[in-house]
Each structure stands twice: as C-alpha cells, then as structure tokens.
Design brief:
This protein is mainly alpha-helical. It has helices at 2-9, 13-38, 44-97, 103-118, 127-152, 159-183, 188-212, 217-237, 250-262.
Length: 263
C-alpha cells in the first residue's frame, strides 16, 4: 500500500479526479451491460430489491467518505494550529533571548529570526526539497541550542536563564511536532478502499439502471463528477506539500516581518 500511496502522490489531484470519473463511468457501463446480459427481466419487485441494495451501498459510501474527509480535515487543522504554535514559541524565545545581556543573546536573537524565515511553508516543493529543508532545520536548531547554552553561561541558576531554556525547548519541541503533523497522512489503505468502494458502487448503480433499460447518462455523469470532486478534495487536504488547499502561513509571515523590523 505504501507503493500505491507514493504512486498516487505522483499524480496531480485533477488527474486523479479525471481518472475517477472515467473509472466510475466505465464501471457503471459494465454493470449496465452485465444486467442486460445476465439479469432477469419483468419483475418490479426484483428491481425494487436491487434499488434497496444500491441505496444501502451508497449510504455506506457516504459514511466512508465522511469518515475519510473528517480524518483529512483533522490533520489539516492540526497542521494549521502548529504553524501558529511554532510562531508563538519562536517569538517568545526571541524576546527572552533579548534578556541575556551578552553577545550570545544577541546572536541567538539573530539566529531565531533567520530560523523563523525558514519555517514559512517548509513542506512546499518536492519530497527531496522537503528532506533538505528538514536537514537544514536540524542544523539550525543545533546552532540555536549552542547559542542558548552560551547565552546563559554567565549564571545558569537565574530565573531568566530558566525562562530562556524553557522557551528554546518549546521551539525545538514544536518543530518536531509540526514536522510530524506534516508527515501525518490519511493511510493509503483508506484512500484506496474509498476509491474501490466508490467504483463498485458505480458498477452497482449501472447494474440497477440496467433493470430499467436506461443509462440516465446526464444524471449519472453529474453524480460521478460530484463523487470524484469529493474524493479529490480529501486528497488535496491530505497533501501538505503540493496540494491546492494550503495551510495559512500568515502567523509565521507576520512574525518574520516583526523580527525584521525589530532588528
């Protein structure tokens, strides 16, 4: 499933949506033909029974879509909250670094300002670029900690030193939490199951329509487009690196602007 998830990530969201519409249409056509060839004709009761089966399948599909959408939206909201939290933590650490009346404190403030600039949309771009950004972030955090120990070295027992260490620890911890949130995705098995279930439901819809001898192409095509749009929205929410629905970076942008103005 990991390979399938990686393969899906390589396809643009609009491409996945178009592929789903085509797959649904083909599945419905296949279901229609299967009923025309193998189904029994003439009994309204049987058609009603098949319609009830279709209704149940579509209800289960709606539940599965709702569950998956909720999972993707929850991860999106978590990533958005982590941007605000990290901006707050960096800002607090920058203020407390200013309380260290030595050169290391000033250097720490400058390093925190530079670090904040790298935390604007760190997940944007290719997976390779994201890996490079993460590695650069690790190096900068090591430098931040080195400067922190130097800033408090004159007297580590003061309340100011403890406050600075606590603030910098929060910056380091939040970075890990944010990167974990970026990497947290809806499991590929769930996405694949949703797509397969939707395709089977389209087949069942075509099979039931075969009992009435009419494709209702306009209505079914609109249904398939809406269904594909819903699934692509889920995929978009679940793609922090290249999705069209982006987590707002405004909190970090504002922080960088404030720190730049304060220099």
């Amino acid at each position: 499933m990991t390979e399938i998830g990686t393969w899906l990530d390589g396809i643009p969201v609009w491409g996945v949506g178009l592929g789903l519409v085509i797959a649904f249409a083909l599945a419905a056509e296949l279901g229609f033909l299967v009923h025309q060839k193998f189904g029994r004709d003439g009994k309204a009761g049987e058609a009603n029974d098949e319609g009830q089966v279709l209704s149940t399948a579509l209800l289960l599909l709606a539940l599965l879509i709702g569950f998956t959408f909720s999972m993707a939206l929850g991860r999106f909201d978590d990533r958005r909250a982590q941007v605000v939290q990290e901006a707050n933590d960096i800002g607090t650490a920058w203020l407390r670094a200013g309380l260290a009346d030595n050169a290391a404190g000033k250097a720490l403030q400058a390093k925190l300002a530079d670090y904040a600039a790298t935390r604007i949309s760190p997940a944007a771009g290719t997976p390779q670029h994201y890996a490079e950004v993460k590695a650069a972030g690790d190096r900068m955090r090591d430098e931040i900690w080195t400067l922190t120990t130097a800033a408090i070295s004159p007297d580590r027992s003061t309340a100011q030193a403890a406050a600075l260490v606590s603030a910098v620890n929060a910056v380091l911890d939040t970075a890990t939490t944010r990167e974990t949130a970026i990497d947290a995705r809806v499991p590929a098995k769930v996405i694949v199951l949703l797509m397969l279930y939707a395709t089977v439901s389209a087949f069942l819809l075509g099979y039931v329509l075969g009992a009435y001898g009419s494709h209702h192409r306009g209505a079914t095509t609109l249904l398939f487009v809406l269904l594909a749009m819903t699934i692509t929205i889920i995929l978009d929410l679940d793609r922090p690196r290249d999705g069209g629905i982006k987590v707002s970076q405004q909190a970090m942008i504002d922080l960088v602007a404030d720190l730049k103005a304060a220099r």
